[in-house]
Amino acid sequence: MNLEQLRGFVEVARLGHFTRASEALHLAQPSLSRQISTLERELGTDLLRRARGHISLTPAGEALLPRAQRILAEVEAIRDEMDELAGLRRGRVRLGAPPTLCVSLVAEALSTFHGAHPGVDLHLAEAGSRSLVEQLAVGELDIALITSSDARPLPGVTLSRIPLLAEELVVVTSSATPLVAAGAAIGMAYLADLPIIALDRSYDLRATTDAAFRAAGLSPTPVLEGPEMDTVLRFVERGLGVAVVPAMALTDRPSLRSARLSTPLTRTVSLAHRSDVTPGAAVAAMQRVIIETAAGFADRDPALHSLREA
Q: What would the mean pLDDT of 72-82 be, rounded to a whole number?
């Protein structure tokens, strides 16, 4: 058994297709097929069910997959750490974050990190928290900023999570039509009477907002639903209505104004990595920068509350 065989097996399992896996690995398909066949002979069992146009895992393949993923993730961590020993002149960090954090907290943290360590390769994945957890699980990411609107655990492998911020949800409107006087807060009943532009129901934030309305005995009907955060904010900028969004979504959007809710709704922003993979030097350095950057955001914005001990 060798790393090339394990890497080939993981790619075939991920893509469910030999041709696409060989293209992803930049390897001829016959070579990949031989690798998998050799691995199966060495293990004494079939790992894949080969059907026309599709590949699925046997029970043995399902048992091997998470172990193979862990082995490959550890190998990458070892290589990265060896590269990083000389003062972080080389290395790699694969970071994931939701869109609202990419344009705010992450943008500032990456700028700071790159200025201090320009030789480290940075890779950013932008996705929802549940997708990021899945990418952490299979070793596609080293660390990720994940958010949760309530106490439900996110699915995936065991993660080490560092809570950074409690971020309030705020009501945003076009700067041309502010909702209330500066510093005033908005109640749920007042909000329910406004034209609301809502996020798609697949968002945890939408579920949190809907639950708050139900708790107040309210059931407003949105005037419009947007599939993505950026789309919703653009509708608000054009004066079509108001929206309830995380406070950091307003970063670099001077055409928007926000008001806090009289009964705060919050989401938790945490920094996560796999518990069974030790972060390399570059990843650990990035973690420190993100933690410091988050503390700075909390100092500047009253709608953000640091969860780190002073």
A: 80
Same-domain check for residues 188 and 118: no
Q: Is residue 27 scored above 90 in pLDDT?
A: no
CB-CB contact of 249 with 304 (8 Å): no
Nearest to residue 236, comparing CAs of 148, 310, 157, 175? 175
Tokens in use for 131?
Answer: 């997708």
CATH value at residue 299: 3.40.190.10
Q: For the whole model, what pTM was predicted?
A: 0.68
Same structural domain, 158 and 69:
no
Q: Which amino acid is at 85?
A: L
Residue 133 maps to a domain: yes
| Comparison of pLDDT for 53 and 14, the residue scoring more | 14
CA gap 258, 115 in Å, rounded: 32
pLDDT given at position 309: 67
CATH classification of the domain holding 170: 3.40.190.290
Task: Note the residue count of the chain.
Answer: 310
* Residue 310 lies inside a defined structural domain of this protein: no
Q: What is the 3-state secondary structure (H, E, C) of 231-257?
A: HHHHHHHCCCCEEEEEHHHHCCCCCEE
Rounded to whole angstroms, how far apart are CA atoms 47 and 44?
9
Nearby residues of 69 by Cβ (< 8 Å), 6 or more positions away: 10, 137, 138, 139
- For residue 299, the tally of other CB atoms under 10 A from its CB is 10
| Count of beta carbons in the 10 Å neighbourhood of residue 158 | 9
